[in-house]
TrEMBL record, chain C:
Residues annotated as domain Electron transfer flavoprotein alpha/beta-subunit N-terminal: 24-214
Name of the protein: Electron transfer flavoprotein subunit beta
SUPFAM superfamilies hit by this protein: Adenine nucleotide alpha hydrolases-like
InterPro entries given in the database record: ETF_a/b_N, ETF_b, ETF_beta_N, Rossmann-like_a/b/a_fold
Family statement drawn from the similarity comment of this UniProt entry: Belongs to the ETF beta-subunit/FixA family.
UniProt keyword list: Electron transport, Transport
GO MF annotation list: electron transfer activity
Length: 692, 321, 263
C-alpha cells in the first residue's frame, strides 16, 4: 500500500521525528516492566522451596487444557464465555500488538510471511477478534458496573470495593481495541477517499469496518491526526497496561500459564511439611508450618499473584455460605496485598510480622473443612487446602489450638481415637454381629492374630459412635454375603489421622500412620476396603506402601458388574432418593458413578439429583476433628444440604460417609424435617436390599 | 470431749451448714460438747440463731471481721483454740482458704470434704471421702490425738430436725487481736445479672454436657418455653460459653430451689447438686445409666436428650393445645 | 518474676473409666492414661503468661516417680523454663501434710517470688497449696481466677466464690495461690513440642537432698490414711422409666403435669 497518510514512524513535529517517542516509550515500558517483574520475583526467591517440575508431559497437557482451552471457565457460563472471548481475542491480537510496536519505528512493518495472503487472513481474524473483545468488554462492564453480581461484592471488613479497578481495566482493553480500529481505519479511510486500493479485506460489521466507513467523512488532515493520535494512544495504553498488570489482579494475565503449568497434581494429598525433608527428618526442623509470609512456598506466592479476584471459590465455599469468617478469595487477596506491602516496588522490604493476628485470624483458618470446592472451581488452579494445612501447622507449633480441639487431639495422642475411649474396645462394634447374629469376625492383630486376604479398615467413628457402628455392621454383613475373606485390626487399629494431619498436628499424624502401617503390613492383607472416605483418602494419599485401598461402593459396583449380587425390590417405592456426594469420595477421589450405579441397580428405587452434585457437591460440615470444632456461623452446612435435598423433592438422602451421616441426620433434626426426610448410608441400604 | 465448729455467716445470717456441723460433730462423738465459733461484725442475731444447736457459742465481734477473711481467721484461731482441738468447717470457698493452713499452724491433722462420719475409735476418727470427681469413695482414718481440722461436704448432714440445745453465748471478742496479714480484701464483684434470676424460678429445665453442641441448646430453650419454665445449666456449659454464668446451677453458680427440676444430660457431680436446695421433684435424662444423678433424681430415663427433648416439647405443646 | 508451679500426674478422668479394683485397695490402674492434673495445667499457663509480660522464669515441680517426668516435660514443652522432680521411696503414701513438707523443703532450696498450685487434684482435698503457704508463712489465696501484677511486690487477684461472684484482693509477694480452672485458655502442646524436650535432663531430688527426715513422711508419718476404695450402694435412686421414645415421652408429660411442672 503506498502511504497516503504519513505513518507514525515517519511523522515529525517541529522537525523532531516522532519515531523517537515510539522508541522511547517501548524502551521505558519494557524496562519498567522488567524492573517490576524482577521486584515481584523477590518474594518467590525468598519463599520456601517446592518441586513442581515432575511429570512434565502431564503438566504441559494441563496447561493446554486449563490455560489455553480455558476448560473451567464455562462453569459460570456468562462470565466464562465473556472471558474466553477476551482471552482468545488477546491471543489472536498478540501478533498485532507486536506489529504495532515495531510499526512506530519501521513504517509499514509486517511480521514474516504476513505480507502475503496469510497477513490478509490474519487481518480479518484480528478485526473480528477486536470487535468481539470490544463487545465482550462492554457487556462485562455493564454486568460489573450495573448488575453487580453477588460474588464480586467486597464485605466491609475486607476493604474497598474492587469494581472501579475492574471497570478501569475493561476501559483500558476497550481503549486498545478502539485505538487500533481508529489507527487502522484512518489509514484505510484516507486510501478510500483518494480512491486507492488498500489490499485490505474489511470484514463487514467489524469495528474496523464501522470506523473506516465513518472516517471516510473526515478530511485528510483529520485522518492524519487520528492516525498519529490513536497510534500514540495505543502505545501509551499498551505499555501502561503492561506495567499495570503486575500491580493487581491482572497479574494473572502474565502468571496464569505458569500457575497452571506448576499446578498441584496429586489431588487429595497434603504437601509435606517442607520440600526435601523426609518424614524421619521432621524432628530436626526449627519451625513447622507457615507463620511468616516467607514460609509459604514459591508456588503459593505465585497463587497469590495469579488470583483474578473472580470470587468463584468463595461462591462455592460452604464455610462462606454458612457465615463462617472464611472466604478463600479474600485469604488470597489479603495475602497478595500483604506481599505487595511487604515487598514494595521501591524501597526495602517492610517487616510486617506474622500472618495470624494481622491479616488472618485463627477462626478464619480453622473454619475450612478441606472440602476442595474452591480448588475445583478456580480457573487458575489456585491451591487452598495445602495453604490452610500449612498455616494450621504453624498455629499448632505455637500452641494456638482452640480449646474445643485440644481435648480430641490429646485423646488421639493417648488413646488413638478422638473420643478418649479405650483402645481395647475398638473392635467391640462387631460384638452384636458375633453374639446376636452368629457371625465370625477375624481380628488380624494381637497375640492370637488371624489372617485374611482383605482388611476392613473401620477407623474411629465407625468403631466407637453408636449410630455409625450400624454402618460398620452393614458393611460387615455385605462383605460376608459376598463371601469375602476379611478381618478387622481391632484394638491395634488407630485413627487414620486424616484430619489430624489436615488440622496441622503433623507429628501426631506421623505417629498414627507409623502404628497403622505396621499393623497393616504385619497382618499380611492383600487389599483394604473401608466405608469411610476420609480413611480411604488417608490410606491412599497420606500413607505409603500399603496394599490397594477401595471404598465399599467401588467394591459393590464391581460385584454388580460381575453379576455376583442381586437386590430385592424396595418395599416402599414412593420414596424419592437423592445421593449426596461426600467430599472425600467425590471431589478428592473422583468416585462419582459407582455409588449412583449401585443405587440404580436396586429395583423400584427412584432417584433425583441435587443441583449441586458431583464435583459441585456441597460439604455436609466436615469430618474427623471438624466435628469437635465450634465455629462461629450463621447456620450449619448440614442444615443447608438437607434443604437442598428437600428442594428437589427428595424424601431419603443417601450418604456414603459416616461424617456426612452425622451431619445430615443432625441437619434433619434441627430443620424440623424429621418424618419428612430421612438419611441412610449406602451400605445400610444395600444391606437392607441385598439378596443374601 | 469438746468439738468446735466454725460457722460461716454473711450479711447477718448464718449459712445452712451451721446446723449441719452440729449434727456432724454428734456423729463424730455423740457425747461431745459442741462449741460454735462465730466471727463477724454485729453478729448477735447469728449467735442467737445458732444457739439452738450448740452447747456454747464463742462470739468474736469486731468491725475488722465484717467480711469473712480466711487469712485473718487463719491467724486468729490458732491463738483462740485450745491445744489438740478438733474443729469442723463446711467444705466451701472459705474453708479452702483457711482450713488446711490452720491445720499446719495448730500442728493438727487435716481431712477434707468428708461425705460421712463413722465415729471415733479412741483418738482416731473414721471418715468417708470421695475421689476422682465422686466416681469412687474411700474409708479413711485420721489420727486426731494432736487435734484435727475436718471439713465437711455441705448438705450431707442436712436434716429436718430442729434441735433445741440452747447453748450460751460467750463473748471472746476481747481475747482476739486482729493480726496483720499480707492479703487485703478489696471488694466483691457481683456476677453479671442475666435476664433471668433462676434462684427464684419454680420450674427449671437444666442442661449439661449431654447437649453435645451449642446449636442443640435451642431444643432446651424450646422445651422450657413450652413448659412455662426457665432454663439453666451446669458448669461445663458456661465454661464453653454456651450460656451466661447467671444460668449456672451449682456451688460456684446459683443456688436454686425450684419445685420441679429437669436434669438433662447432667451427670450429677456434687458441685452441681450443691446448688439445688429444697428437694425439688427431679427428673433426670442421661445416656449413662450409672450417672450419679440417678441416685438423687425421683424419675430417671436412660436415653439421649437429643432424641427425647424435641419429642417431649412436641407432646407438651400438644397437651397444652 | 520467679514462679514455681507444683504439678501432679493424675489419671485423666475424661478418658478413663474409673473403677475400684478387685481388692478394693485402689482404683483399677491397668489401661489408665495419665496426664497433668487439669488445675495444675491452668496454673502453668498462667505462670507462662505472667512471665511473658514481666520477665522471669517458670519452674515446674512434681512429687512422684520417673513417670512424673513425662508431665514435667510436657509443661516444659508448653513453655516452662525448668523442671524439678522430687522422688524418693520414702515419699510414697505421704498424706497431704507430708507432701506439703516435701514441697516446702524444695522451695527452701530455691528462690521463688510466687508459688502456684492447682485448686485441687484427683483426691479432691484442695489442701496442698494452703498447707505449703502456712509452712512458708506466706499469704495465700485459693480458687484464684484472675491475677494482675501491680508491681514487683504486689498482685491483684480474684477468687471464685459462690453465686458466680468474685472476691478481689491485693496480696503481697512472696505468696502462694491455688488456681481455679477457667482462669485462662491453656495453649496446645503438640507431639512435636513434646518430642523436642524428650531428652532434656530433669534434676531429681530425694529426701536426703532436701534434708527431710524420712520418718516424718510416707505412711508412717501420715496422720490421715486411706483404708480402702469402694463404690457406695446406690440406695433407692430414681424410678427408671422404660420404653421407646414415644412411650417415655408420654409418661414424662403425665408426670410433669401431675407434679406441676407445666405452667
Amino acid at each position: 500500500m503506498e502511504p497516503v497518510i504519513i505513518p507514525p514512524a515517519s511523522y515529525t513535529i517541529l522537525g523532531i521525528p516522532l519515531m523517537l517517542l515510539f522508541i522511547i516509550i517501548p524502551i521505558i515500558g519494557i524496562a519498567l516492566f522488567t524492573f517490576i517483574i524482577a521486584r515481584r520475583m523477590q518474594p518467590l526467591v525468598k519463599a520456601a522451596p517446592d518441586n513442581r517440575l515432575d511429570q512434565l508431559g502431564l503438566r504441559l497437557f494441563n496447561m493446554l487444557k486449563f490455560a489455553v482451552a480455558q476448560y473451567k471457565q464455562p462453569r459460570y457460563m456468562l462470565a466464562g464465555v465473556l472471558h474466553i472471548v477476551i482471552f482468545a481475542g488477546f491471543c489472536i491480537l498478540s501478533l498485532r500488538s507486536i506489529t504495532l510496536v515495531i510499526v512506530g519505528i519501521k513504517a509499514g512493518y509486517t511480521l514474516p510471511l504476513f505480507d502475503t495472503w496469510i497477513g490478509t487472513i490474519y487481518n480479518v481474524l484480528k478485526d473480528i477478534a477486536a470487535t468481539a473483545v470490544l463487545v465482550a468488554v462492554v457487556v462485562a462492564a455493564i454486568r460489573r458496573g450495573i448488575y453487580k453480581p453477588e460474588r464480586y461484592k467486597v464485605p466491609e471488613k475486607y476493604g474497598k470495593d474492587h469494581t472501579a479497578e475492574a471497570i478501569f481495566v475493561l476501559a483500558m482493553i476497550g481503549g486498545l481495541m478502539i485505538a487500533d480500529m481508529f489507527f487502522e481505519g484512518s489509514d484505510l479511510a484516507a486510501h478510500m477517499n483518494k480512491g486507492l486500493e488498500t489490499h485490505y479485506f474489511l470484514f463487514p460489521f467489524t469495528g474496523t469496518w464501522f470506523v473506516t466507513y465513518a472516517l471516510t467523512l473526515c478530511s485528510d488532515a483529520t485522518l492524519q491526526f487520528f492516525h498519529i493520535f490513536f497510534y500514540t494512544v495505543h502505545e501509551l495504553i499498551f505499555f501502561s497496561f503492561l506495567n499495570f498488570l503486575p500491580l493487581g489482579k491482572h497479574f494473572h494475565v502474565i502468571t496464569s500459564m505458569f500457575n497452571v503449568l506448576f499446578m498441584k497434581l496429586n489431588k487429595g494429598s497434603v504437601k509435606p511439611v517442607k520440600c526435601g525433608v523426609s518424614d524421619d527428618q521432621l524432628d530436626d526442623l526449627e519451625s513447622f508450618g507457615v507463620k511468616e509470609f516467607e514460609d509459604f512456598t514459591w508456588k503459593h506466592v505465585l497463587d497469590f499473584y495469579s488470583c483474578a479476584d473472580c470470587g468463584r471459590c468463595a461462591d462455592q465455599c460452604p464455610a462462606n455460605h454458612v457465615g463462617r469468617p472464611l472466604a478463600p478469595r479474600f485469604v488470597t487477596i489479603k495475602c497478595r496485598d500483604f506481599c505487595f506491602d511487604k515487598y514494595p516496588l521501591i524501597g526495602a522490604s517492610v517487616d510486617k510480622g506474622p500472618l495470624i493476628g494481622s491479616i488472618l485470624s485463627e477462626d478464619e483458618i480453622w473454619s475450612c473443612t478441606t472440602c476442595g470446592a474452591c480448588e475445583e472451581e478456580c480457573p487458575l488452579l489456585i491451591e487452598y487446602i495445602d495453604k490452610f494445612v500449612d498455616i494450621r501447622r504453624g498455629m499448632v507449633d505455637e500452641g494456638m489450638v482452640p480449646q474445643s480441639l485440644q481435648k480430641p487431639l490429646n485423646a488421639l495422642g493417648k488413646r488413638g481415637n478422638p473420643y478418649g475411649k479405650m483402645e481395647k474396645k475398638r473392635g467391640d462394634w462387631t460384638k452384636p454381629l458375633i453374639k446376636d447374629e452368629g457371625y465370625e469376625c477375624k481380628v488380624l492383630s494381637g497375640k492370637k492374630a488371624d489372617s485374611a486376604e482383605i482388611l476392613f479398615f473401620a477407623d474411629s467413628i465407625t468403631s466407637y459412635d453408636d449410630r455409625i457402628q450400624e454402618i460398620g455392621q452393614s458393611s460387615f454383613r455385605i462383605l460376608k454375603a459376598c463371601g469375602i475373606d476379611f478381618g478387622i485390626l481391632g484394638p491395634a487399629e488407630k485413627d487414620s489421622g486424616h484430619e489430624v494431619r489436615r488440622f496441622g498436628e503433623e507429628m501426631l499424624f506421623q505417629d498414627l500412620k507409623e502404628k497403622n502401617t505396621k499393623a497393616i503390613i504385619d497382618s499380611g492383607v492383600k487389599r483394604i476396603i473401608t466405608a469411610d472416605p476420609h480413611a480411604l483418602n488417608a490410606l491412599k494419599k497420606d500413607y505409603a506402601n500399603l496394599p490397594p485401598v477401595e471404598h465399599v461402593s467401588e467394591f459393590l459396583y464391581k460385584m454388580i458388574q460381575e453379576g455376583k449380587v442381586e437386590f430385592n425390590p424396595l418395599e416402599n417405592q414412593s420414596d424419592i432418593y437423592v445421593y449426596h456426594d461426600p467430599c472425600y469420595l467425590g471431589r478428592h477421589n473422583l468416585i462419582y458413578d459407582p455409588p449412583r450405579l449401585v443405587l440404580d441397580a436396586i429395583p423400584g428405587l427412584k432417584r433425583v439429583e441435587m443441583e449441586r452434585s458431583r464435583d459441585r457437591s456441597f460439604c455436609c460440615g466436615g469430618g474427623g476433628l471438624m466435628l469437635f470444632y465450634e465455629p462461629v456461623e450463621e447456620t450449619r452446612m448440614g442444615k443447608e444440604r438437607v434443604q437442598m435435598a428437600a428442594d428437589v423433592g427428595a424424601t431419603v438422602i443417601v450418604t456414603a460417609c459416616p461424617f456426612c451421616m452425622v451431619n445430615i441426620e443432625d441437619g434433619i433434626k434441627t430443620s424440623g424435617l424429621e418424618g419428612k426426610v430421612s438419611a441412610i448410608d449406602l451400605a445400610e441400604l444395600v444391606d437392607q436390599q441385598l439378596v443374601k | 470431749m469438746q468439738i468446735f465448729a466454725y460457722i460461716i455467716n454473711k450479711d447477718g445470717k448464718a449459712d445452712d451448714t451451721a446446723l449441719e456441723l452440729a449434727l456432724a460433730a454428734k456423729k463424730l462423738n455423740s457425747d461431745a460438747q459442741v462449741t460454735a465459733i462465730i466471727a463477724g461484725s454485729g453478729i448477735d442475731n447469728v449467735c442467737q440463731e445458732v444457739s439452738a444447736a450448740y452447747n456454747e457459742i464463742w462470739k468474736i465481734d469486731n468491725a475488722a471481721l465484717a467480711y469473712p477473711d480466711g487469712e485473718i481467721m487463719g491467724k486468729i484461731l490458732p491463738k483462740l483454740l485450745p491445744d489438740n482441738a478438733i474443729l469442723l468447717m463446711a467444705h466451701e470457698y472459705l474453708a479452702m482458704d483457711m482450713a488446711p493452713g490452720l491445720a499446719v499452724r495448730t500442728d493438727s491433722a487435716y481431712i477434707a470434704d468428708v461425705t460421712d462420719i463413722e465415729g471415733m475409735d479412741g483418738t482416731t476418727g473414721k471418715f468417708v471421702r470421695q475421689e476422682f470427681s465422686g466416681m469412687v469413695s474411700t474409708h479413711n482414718t485420721c489420727d486426731m490425738s494432736g487435734g484435727a481440722v475436718v471439713t465437711v461436704r455441705p448438705g450431707v448432714f442436712a436434716s429436718e430436725e430442729t434441735p433445741s440445745v440452747g447453748g450460751s453465748v460467750v463473748d471472746k471478742s476481747g481475747d482476739v487481736d486482729i493480726p496483720e496479714t499480707n492479703r487485703k480484701y478489696l471488694e466483691t464483684v457481683e456476677a453479671e445479672v442475666g435476664d433471668v434470676d433462676i434462684s427464684t424460678s419454680e420450674i427449671l429445665v437444666s442442661v449439661g454436657r449431654g447437649i453435645e453442641e451449642e446449636d442443640n441448646i435451642e431444643i432446651i430453650q424450646e422445651l422450657a418455653e413450652a413448659m412455662g419454665a426457665d432454663y439453666s445449666c451446669s458448669r461445663p456449659i458456661v465454661d464453653a460459653k454456651w450460656m451466661e454464668k447467671s444460668r449456672q446451677v451449682g456451688t460456684s453458680g446459683k443456688t436454686v430451689k425450684p419445685k420441679v427440676y429437669m436434669a438433662l444430660g447432667i451427670s450429677g457431680a456434687f458441685q452441681h447438686l450443691g446448688g439445688i436446695k429444697g428437694s425439688p421433684f427431679m427428673i433426670a435424662v442421661n445416656k449413662n445409666p450409672k450417672a450419679p444423678i440417678f441416685q438423687v433424681a425421683d424419675i430417671g430415663v436412660e436415653g439421649d436428650i437429643l432424641d427425647i427433648v424435641p419429642e417431649l416439647t412436641e407432646k407438651v405443646k400438644e397437651m397444652k393445645g | 518474676m520467679e514462679i514455681l508451679v507444683c504439678v501432679k500426674r493424675v489419671p485423666d478422668t475424661s478418658e478413663n473409666e474409673i473403677e475400684v479394683n478387685s481388692e478394693g485397695s485402689d482404683i483399677e490402674r491397668d489401661d489408665l492414661v495419665y496426664s497433668i492434673n487439669e488445675w495444675d495445667n491452668y496454673a502453668v499457663e498462667e505462670a507462662i503468661q505472667i512471665v511473658d509480660k514481666v520477665g522471669g522464669s517458670v519452674t515446674v515441680m512434681a512429687i512422684g516417680d520417673e513417670e512424673s517426668e513425662e508431665i514435667i516435660r510436657r509443661e516444659m514443652a508448653m513453655g516452662a523454663n525448668n523442671g524439678i522432680l522430687l522422688s524418693d521411696d520414702a515419699f510414697e503414701k505421704s498424706d497431704g501434710r507430708g507432701l506439703a513438707t516435701i514441697l516446702k523443703a524444695a522451695v527452701d532450696k530455691g528462690n521463688y517470688d510466687l508459688i502456684l498450685t492447682g485448686a485441687q487434684s484427683d483426691t479432691g482435698a484442695a489442701q496442698t497449696g494452703a498447707m505449703l503457704a502456712a509452712m512458708l508463712d506466706q499469704p495465700f489465696a485459693s480458687l484464684v481466677n484472675l491475677i494482675e501484677v501491680k508491681d514487683d511486690s504486689t498482685l491483684k487477684i480474684g477468687r471464685e466464690i459462690d453465686g458466680g461472684n468474685q472476691e478481689m484482693h491485693e496480696i503481697k509477694l512472696p505468696c502462694v495461690l491455688s488456681i481455679q480452672t477457667g482462669i485462662n485458655e491453656p495453649r496446645y502442646v503438640g507431639i512435636r513440642g513434646i518430642r523436642k524436650v524428650a531428652s532434656v535432663e530433669i534434676p531429681t531430688m530425694g529426701a536426703s537432698d532436701l534434708g527431710i527426715d524420712p520418718a516424718t513422711l510416707g505412711e508412717s508419718g501420715a496422720k490421715t490414711k486411706t483404708l480402702d476404695y469402694f463404690v457406695p450402694e446406690i440406695g433407692e435412686g430414681a424410678e427408671m422409666i422404660e420404653g421407646d421414645t414415644d412411650e417415655v415421652v408420654e409418661k414424662l408429660v403425665e408426670i410433669l403435669k401431675s407434679k406441676g411442672g407445666i405452667k
